[in-house]
Design goal:
The protein has 88 residues and is of the alpha+beta class. It has a single domain, classed as NE0471 N-terminal domain-like. The protein contains 3 helices and 8 strands, in the order ββββααβββαβ. The strands form 3 sheets. It has a 3-stranded antiparallel sheet with strand order 2-3-4. A 3-stranded antiparallel sheet has the order 5-6-7. The longest helix has 6 residues.
């Protein structure tokens, strides 16, 4: 089985993001509830900081060292279509 990772991310505003996965599926996620803890304080208080997200090694990252687990982003919402692939 192929591993599913995040290939591209596009911030949509209001703490939402569109993810393009390595299996070519596109999913949208609301990250507002995931941005907790001190590492995300600047991102939560200033959406322009949120908009600086990028993909690094299949993970969403921001300047300053904040990142989010790709498995939570891929499988933490409405699931991508069942294509026989797994996320790790």
């Amino acid at each position: 089985m192929k591993l599913v990772r995040i290939r591209e991310a596009k911030p949509l505003g209001n703490y939402r993001v569109q993810l393009t996965l390595t299996n070519d599926q596109i999913v949208e996620r609301d990250l507002g509830a995931m941005l907790r803890g001190p590492i995300f304080s600047e991102i939560r208080s200033d959406e322009t900081q949120f908009m600086q997200l990028r993909v690094e090694d299949g993970t969403l990252v921001w300047p300053g060292g904040a990142d989010l687990c790709p498995d939570m982003l891929i499988w933490g919402g409405l699931p991508p279509a069942d294509t026989g692939v797994v996320a790790t």
